Amino acid sequence: MVTGSTSPSAATVGPPGPLDDAGYHFLAPRLRSTLFVLPGVMRCPPEYFVEAARRYGGVVTLSPNRIYLVTDPEGVKHVLQDNHTNYIKGPSYQVLRPLMGNGLFSSDGDYWKRQRRLIQPAFQHKHHPRMTDIIVDSTSRMLERWESKASRSEAIDGRSEVILLTVEILLRSMFSGDLIGSEEVLRDAILDCSRHMDLIGVVKIVKMLAWFRFARRRRFEQAIRTLDSFILGVLDERRRKQIDNGDLVSLLLWARDEQTGESMSDREIRDELMTMIQAGNDTVADTIAWTWYLLAKHPEVRERVESEVDSTLQGRTPGLEDLPALSYTNRVVMESMRIYPSAWGFGRTALKEDVIGGYRIPPKALVVVSPYVTHRRPDLWENPETFDPDRFLPERSQGRPRFAYFPFSAGPRKCIGAGIAMVEAPMVVAMAAQRYRLSVPAGFTPGLKTRITLTADREIALTPAARITPFPT
Description:
Largest sheet: 5 strands, mixed
Low-confidence stretches: 1-15, 18-27, 30-36, 199-211
Helix content: 40-55%
CATH architecture: Orthogonal Bundle
Strand order of the largest sheet: 3-4-10-7-5
Mean pLDDT: 86
Shape: globular
CATH class: Mainly Alpha
Distance between the termini: 33 Å
């Protein structure tokens, strides 16, 4: 299932450090030299971390007293939930500020809490029907565009197709009528930003490369100016005219903090919208693209999805009420996110000294938590490299630790858009399965490319073939 594995065998493992008076180790098992760690991390961080965790355990010191990899569910729970106030996004997220500003993804502390309270109502279940209508309409148009490709047995670039789809869904859900005449310019600006946002490094040199290596930095900055101009213009007009379109912009514009009665400034709304554009676009798009690839590689799973979709929908477009009946399709998406979680890894900076798994974590240390690694622990997942959606059946999930699976992060900072994502991804997958059977070239297996999200290192060429079903679509 996974290619491009980079083993840390060139490094030597040190034993846990000596015990202090409290019985804790000063150092977790570690790779003795950062010079050995860095090349593996640069080549393929997820696979390098998988091997490190399998060799050295649930807490690994990647750089003495500075960087720790935590993959044991109890350790993950400690960082993301039990002691989450001690772990902030910190300096490793500064690379995102030119685009996202001080939005939810990069902010910390009391400001983050305030913003989360203000924004949370916009993502309540009562808003899902409107979002569902947008998803169905936009996906239908995409599938219609595939007809000519299917008639010529011509491949599509799976990720490019779904990126265009998710951008359209995002823009329509955010700005509704304000989009008229601006769709193409905004779409291109979003895609330019997406191309230039790269991996959040786990060491300083990676962060520097991720930010300064852009040969087309000016294009990135122009894309931000384009989006800023449009967003701030819309906010100004709606405030002046007291416009409420019921879309995401309006929900944020008229939101009030229940505790203080405060609202958000235009700049604060801009930062949150830009955060949603970036985080809500790439993450869902990569989930769908990886799911299409896995279905193409596993015909027995694809056939079960087709059978469920046909029997449940009988040729009509899905509605929000159909999602519970599409239970296998939902499990397919969940398993895709287990194998290829879009948010493959993220860092937290310790404010104060802490203990994780019996090992001391010093202040200012960077703790790296990786769903990609934890989702592959053989002590948590039977045959973890196997694509097996039924592992999420209730009877097979009993006894599995809660923090063995966290594709949307977890704890108080769990992705605010997780609910919407689990509407959008299964719905798009189901609609595509209604009309087309996707295939990949024989023997095709992509490697991994680590940006902010986890993508393939090459184009995923999917060839759509029209399905013949007893139901019109």
